[in-house]
Every structure is written in C-alpha cells, then in structure tokens.
Write a structure and sequence with these properties.
The structure is a homodimer.
Chain A lengths: L4 H13 L6 H11 L5 E2 L1 H10 L6 H13 L4 E6 L2 E5 L5 E6 L4 E6 L4 E4 L8 E12 L1
Parallel strand pairs in A: 4-7
Antiparallel strand pairs in A: 1-3, 2-3, 4-5
The structure holds a DNA duplex.
DNA sequence: AAGTATTTTAGAATAATTCTAATTTATGTT
DNA sequence: AACATAAATTAGAATTATTCTAAAATACTT
C-alpha cells in the first residue's frame, strides 16, 4: 500500500512553507511525526520508529531534522528530563503534565491554566514563552 | 584565614539535620553552595569552584553530593537546558526567568506569579510541584 | 581501639548528542 | 535533459555530561 498522496502532498507543502527542502528523509520523518495526533518524542524513539518501518535514515539526520524542524517552527523542544530532549508536535500554546515515575508527558491545553500575574523581565528582555510543567507523582 | 566556625557549625548541623554524614567534602561543598545567597550551579561549575579554592574533591563526589543534597531536600534540581543539570540552593517555592541567549537563570519569587486555575491530574496522580519557566529572549 | 557501614575516589563505562569530511541529492539554470 | 551549485545526508569518530565499579579511606558505634 502506497502512502496517501494527499498526506504526502500536505507534508511536502508544510516543509516548503517552513523554508525546508522536502528531501526524502525529511518527508518520511515529517510524516511519522505529523500523521498522527500530537506527540512527544525523543530522537532515539523516532530513530527506532523509522527503522521499524524500514525507513533508511541515519541518526545524525534524525537530529538534524528535529533541530531544523524546531528552528523553523514545526516542532517545539521541551526540557523536563535532564538528559533527554523531547520534541513536541503540538506547537500551539499549551503546557504539560510530567509524570515523574514514567517520564511521560501529557499536554495541558493553554486554557486550563490561568496565569493572572507575571513579572516584567529585566531591562531589555522580552518574554518569548512561558512554560508551565505540572509534575505529577504517580 | 580560617573559615568562620559559626558558618562551619551551621553547615555541619544542616547536613546532620538532613540525615547526611558531615564528611570533609560534603562540608566543603555545602559551604560553597550555601555560604552566599541563592545560586544556580552546575556540577562542572561547582567542581571548578572547588578546585579554585584548593578543595580536593573528585568529580564523582560532586555528583554524589549534589544528588544526596537534592534527595534530602537541601537543593532542588532545575531542568531548563536539555543537556546540563542546574542545582538551585533556593528550595523555597519560586519560579525562574531563563535567559535563552546566555543560559542564565534568575529566581522569580512565588508571589510574582499568580496561577488561579490548574487542571486536575489524571486519576491517582498528585501534583508534586508546578514549575514555571519564563523564557526571555535577551 | 576495633568493627562496620558509608563515603570517596580514579578511571572506565555509558548515553545523548554533535562534529567531520566525504558523498549524495535537490533545485535553478542552461 | 544535462549541469552546476548549494544544501542535505551519512558513517563513524569525537565530545559532553553523567554514572558506574571496585578499591581505599573515613565516620560513627560499641
């Protein structure tokens, strides 16, 4: 079964719109990342998923792609675990539950957290993002 | 100039109270960490600081101490940078500014951020902590 | 002072990530 | 369609932060 042309086309256009060359491996990875609903994934996990589907991509390319995607706004990097980077396919404003035991992440829609006061950043600085992580002891 | 006995004694007692044996190296490190005001420090940075003061401590001990201190509540680990752990000597409730360019952290007192609504964690989970990181583009 | 558990240590090991330099590929231009 | 060029991919080496190992040193109890 060949992949749906519509999906391929959509992903292709999405890469283009982001200013990224739609190469074979970027297309394949983007499809893995964006075909399903929102996900939080590590480089290693994406690498294994690609391997499982017989997609030939080197680990270096996985890292390159994840960073390229992040820089061009297709992904968002989340840092909750000191020694592994998670990448979030949900780029709209939202926050996270972090399950300490399992290390799993879960989205919290932005409107479920109300922040009614924030400090002003020091002279010259601008707030680029406010990340809320709710740590859950499970 | 020998260190103030008062400081030494205070740190000694603090380790004891935390259930940690006040060994030579833990005492020295605790003094570095707690003598001054609140700080955010990495293992490597503490190691260098110790070296600069001719305190003989192995890197493994630095890591052991930081983790022991964290587990017994004398420190708090902060994860904002994907590949370096910061340890915060301020263990009271508070949040952080994170300066993206420099990688520096700055405390934000708890009462400067008002959170008026939080979601309920999934069945069985309990909120152990809510971390707010205000990312500042400087 | 002796005995035992805990801590420290050097150095090896591991894990995640980045780098290097060579090859391949995408794309704009003839 | 072939060509030139810049960008992307790759294998494997290198780097970085951290943990592990097993032996030696130390703290604390008796």
């Amino acid at each position: 079964m060949t992949p749906s042309p519509k999906t391929t086309k959509a992903v292709f256009d999405r890469l283009r719109a982001a200013g990224l060359r739609p190469t074979r491996q970027r297309l394949a990875l983007a499809k893995l990342l964006f075909a399903q609903g929102p996900r939080h994934i590590t480089a290693e996990a994406l690498f294994n998923e690609a391997k499982a589907r017989r997609i030939n991509v080197s680990l270096a390319t996985i890292y390159n792609a994840l960073h390229d995607f992040t820089e061009s706004g297709l992904l968002r990097e989340i840092t909750v675990d000191a020694n592994q980077s998670y990448f979030d396919t949900n780029i709209s404003a939202h926050h996270h539950f972090y399950f300490e035991k399992s290390g799993r992440l879960q989205d919290v829609p932005a409107d479920e957290i109300h922040i009614t006061q924030l400090p002003t950043p020091p002279k010259g600085g601008t707030i680029s993002r406010v990340d809320v992580v709710i740590r859950v002891a499970d």
